[in-house]
Amino acid sequence: MTQQTHILVVEDEPSIAEVTRLYLKRAGYRVTLLADGQVALDFLARETPDLVVLDLMLPGVDGLEITRWLRARSDVPIIMLTARREETDRVLGFEMGADDYVVKPFSPRELVSRVRAVLRRTQKAPAGPAAGGQAVISFDSLTIDPNTRQVLIGDREVVLTAREFDLLHLMARHPRQVFNRDRLLDLVWGMNEYIDPSTVTVHVRRLREKLEANPSHPRYILTVWGVGYKFEP
What domains sit in the chain, N to C, each tagged with a CATH number? Predict the structure, then answer.
């Protein structure tokens, strides 16, 4: 992480916004603070930050609509920041493509920790053996490159969020091994109290929609009924 890492915070509650900005700046990040959803969309149309901390309830355009707009154009990581506690809201946020979800009231230190963790997962490592690159995984037309975090189906690039890539890469590294949802939460999300096990189901469904010719009859990511999921090479 360097001083140049740019975090966009979209939050309309002044006290929360200022504390968030202060802690992120102390952690060494460059912070842009916005309080209106439409203003945030206008900003994102011009610039691409390294990560977005996004409140769900915003004036102008809400956080879900901003997430939907971003995911149609970019894989920039998103951490949702909201007072909503209902499971359906969390699942909807992940369904739209959020990478993490923090519920108010929250510890600013925890938010900084979440930002660091998401950025670590999304940083592109230098490729090649001399740079200590990881092995590229290939199965038929599917190629997964952990060094560039790029996924190809034939010649077509598949744009994944950070969590989606981590989930796919983990399972592809262990073909035919069955993982239950709690184990996947532990290995990919870090198993914290804010993440519901249904999050795994949402991410598996999103991966199938992006990877599979027929998501209803998946070729790669299979359900092992009553147990969990496995990657079939």
Answer: 6-122 (3.40.50.2300), 129-231 (1.10.10.10)
The residue type at 204: V
Could you tell me if 96 and 79 are in contact, meaning their C-beta atoms sit under 8 angstroms apart? Answer: no
Q: Which two tokens stand for residue 58?
A: 């915003």
Tokens encoding 131 = 């740079």
Say which residue, 185 or 8, is predicted with more confidence.
Answer: 8
Chain centroid, CA 129 distance in Å: 27
Q: What is the pLDDT of residue 131?
A: 38
Q: In this structure, are residues 160 and 210 in contact, taking their beta carbons and an 8 Å threshold?
A: yes
Distance from the Cα of residue 14 to its chain's centroid: 26
Strand, helix or coil at 78? strand
At position 86, the amino acid (one-letter code) is E
CA 212 to chain centre: 20
**The model scores a pTM over 0.90:** no
Instruction: Go through 154-192 and write b for each residue having 16 or more CB atoms within 10 A of its CB, e for each that does not.
Output: eeeebebbbbbbbbbbbbbeeeeeebebebbbeebbeee
What gap in Å lies between CA 52 and CA 60, rounded to an integer?
17
